[in-house]
Known about the structure:
The complex is a heterotrimer of chains A (about 290), B (about 240) and C (about 375). With about 240 residues, chain B is α/β, with parallel strands linked by helices. Chain B has 9 helices and 10 strands. Chain B has helices at about 40-50, 70-75, 95-100, 105-120, 120-125, 135-150, 165-180, 195-200, 225-230, and strands at about 1-10, 15-25, 30-35, 55-60, 65, 80, 155-160, 185-190, 205-210, 210-215. Chain C has helices at about 5-30, 35-60, 65-80, 85-90, 95-100, 105-130, 135-155, 155-160, 175-190, 195-205, 205-210, 215-240, 250-265, 270-290, 305-320, 335, 340-345, and strands spanning about 165, 245, 295, 300. At the A-C interface, helix 4, helix 9 and helix 11 of A face helix 7, helix 13 and helix 15 of C. Chain B: Belongs to the ABC transporter superfamily. Chain B: InterPro entries: AAA+_ATPase, ABC_transporter-like_ATP-bd, BCAA_Transport_ATP-bd_LivF, P-loop_NTPase. Chain B: One of its GO terms (molecular function) is branched-chain amino acid transmembrane transporter activity.
Amino acid sequence: MTTVLQFVVDALTAGSFYALFALGIALIFGIMQLVNFAHGELIMVGAYTIFLTQAWPWQATLLMAVVAVAVMALLMERAAFRPIRGANPATLLITSFAVSFLLQNVAQMIFTTLPKSADVVPLFRSSVTVGGLTVGWLSVVTILATAVLLVALALFMTRTRAGVQMRAAAEDFEMARLCGVRSNRVIASAFAIGGLLAGVGAILLVGQTGGISLGIGLTPVLFGFTAAAIGGLGSLPGAVVGGYVLGVATALLQQLLPYELAGYRDAFLFAGVFALMALRPGGLFRVAALSPRV
Amino acid sequence: MLRVEGLDVQYGRIRAVRDVSLEVSQGEIVGLLGPNGAGKTSTLGAVSGRLPVAGGRVLLEGEQLDGRPAEEIVRRGVSLVPEGRHVFATLTVAENLAIGATVRKDRAQVAEDIERQLERFSVLRRYYRSNAGKLSGGEQQQLVIARALLSRPRLLLLDEPSLGLSPLLVDLVFETIEQLRAEGLTILLVEQNASRTVEVADRCYVLRGGELVAHAPRGDLSPEELGDIYLGAGER
Amino acid sequence: MTTSTRPWLRAGVLAAVLCALVALATLLGTLGGPRLDRATGIALIMLIVVVGLKIFVGDSGIFSFGHVAFMGVGAYTTAIVMMAPAQRAFQLPELPGFLADLELSAFEAALLSGVVAAVFALLVSLPLMRLSGLTASLATVALLITCHSVLQNADRFTRGSGGLILIVEPPALLTLLVCACVTIVAALAFRQSRIGLRLAASREDEVAARAIGVRVWWERGIAFVVSAFVLGVAGSLFVRYVGSINPDSFFLSLTFTAIAMLVVGGLTSVSGAVIGTIVVSVALEVLRVIESGVTIGGLEIPSRSGLASVGLALVLLGVLLLRPAGITGGRELSELVPRRSRRAEQRPAEPDARTGPPPVPVGAVEE
């Protein structure tokens, strides 16, 4: 029983992480067909902000991290992606790759390649035992924070004018503009929200490992991208479901892979993604209403 | 009201519209006719800001529209209903209508206007909370017209509103157009159903190969002449 | 189909011009001492990589982020089969018996590396070639990560993240130059071949190409395998030249450099691949000098690691924003020289990033 519960907690924690990152990627992709590889560097910016402000009260540190990431996301959109808006997806992808490389190397010039560490919220490292099941506080916080963010995002998307406009733009950008939806505003909002999600992700990630390095965003962005692809790129509910599916898959592989093969976990995952894209390019759960009309 | 002067529209290397000038006055319905590929949709695209204007000018009551993005043009009172029933399929009918009112600031009257459109297109009320993707083609066409009207346009651009609809629904579309004229709306109408268009329109322009080839007031174009226009015979 | 000799003649002249250009650049590179010699050697290998990449990307219109994986496969193959047996027993004690006593010559190893990479590409291409556009590009990202992860974990063959060391006579600059020129000729010949022409047609308009009987997946698959072979050979030369490799050698950084070179030059032409590689290599070398700390006119610039990469990223971004079709505009040099005035008039207008046709003709049709 405990092992099953432990498994559920592990899967949910990992799934929450992936869902957070996948949402940020899917949001931007839905609106401007951009697979934002530089989403990983947003996480990096968040992590180094935590490093720089760790002497502050922890609430201020966390707030600062989220704000810094959101600002960076807006800057990125304004400087690099707005000028080439409407270019084909591969060009956009290459551009995001260049932005990612740029930010990472600017960070290298400032912080060098030596990893840093930060211990923001000591609570994250402690755990709680309930009926024989030991759960880290970080897991609890991750699961809850993600749940809160998901609900908030869902409410925003369905109950506010800006949210409905964003969904309309994601479905048919040109028609949304013809209805008067302001493209600059809706894209900037999407980047701001993506930045917010990346900022929270960065906090949880630093809380988990305590370590900060230039490549800290790479694994999250790859997994986020994978989860978004599982859910059918661009679909927000798909990204969330994809995140949790990926969480269960990683937890399962962790449990089931024999020791010699454990290192191949990521290889299996990405080979799986490769196969998925080849066999079902629209994602694992293609919802008829969500698939693009011709 | 609308003045188009020497309009050129280009797709990459291909010129779709060449030196087209036309005028639409307040309260008029003006038809834009021509065979496939004549440049009708491109003309509407250029007026609505969907396509960039390569040459010439587009003026709405003296104010320059060309060069402005689509989202600004709709704020100046020009609303396009594009061909192909572009509903937001994953949004509900209610949300689609709300998007139509994006440019409005008078919140209270928007609710009233939505109510009026639901009176006009009663089928939309039935599916008010359903996803627009579930509607039939005819219902979607009603939704996109209602949505465009919610921006309270001064000029409505309709692109092939009756395309692919059953005869009954075609009647409904043309009835609606008559109704809108009665309400004082100005309409520029692109239609493949030329005979119906000639009936309803005050004047018609004829495009072929991207150029304006004829301009006729109501009744001036006989069915035979229309046939010629579409078949490409009978140069004027 | 009648084959006129004229296009072939033009391609021949173009090949001669491009090879002369590369030879000249190489010659200039040898004038600056051992450090520059080495940079020149790496640049020549990158030239093979970029031209090899162009064979698939330029003609199919599908952007691949995974090609560096084929280079890695080639490099590891050569490292394993060329290593002296004593070294092998030390570095890879668990290698299966049939590999343990192997000692191939450089030429055999290069050929084998190319073939292994091509076979691998063939297997991958079976599912991959069903895809178009962005989905295909993303699948190649997944491929790159999978390969990286396997290289890191297949300790028996790769010694994991520790990497392998290969101590052999490095290829001479002249050898690299010859290989680069052969690649240029091969890429131009491929473009002129029936398959190359059909593939380019599918890039321009996939639907129309299918309508005239181009199978698309078949042409794409061939281009993919051919370009993987070239990358495999490049990997073989690379490991012999630098002497040590690890999984990170064939990951994002190298992918980025190769993409930057191809995009900066213009990815639909061999001329673009060649010019892009030369320009970016020179720029990178200058940036590396600055990065290591120099004094220019009394102004001391302190050493800052990462500066060269920042510069490269800025160059790429600049090109993407200002001239998305690259320096050559995606055309061959021979097309840039107007021979008849009428021709010149018909030259396509400069594509515009916002309104015109896609600046980089990638993924012509989405699935």
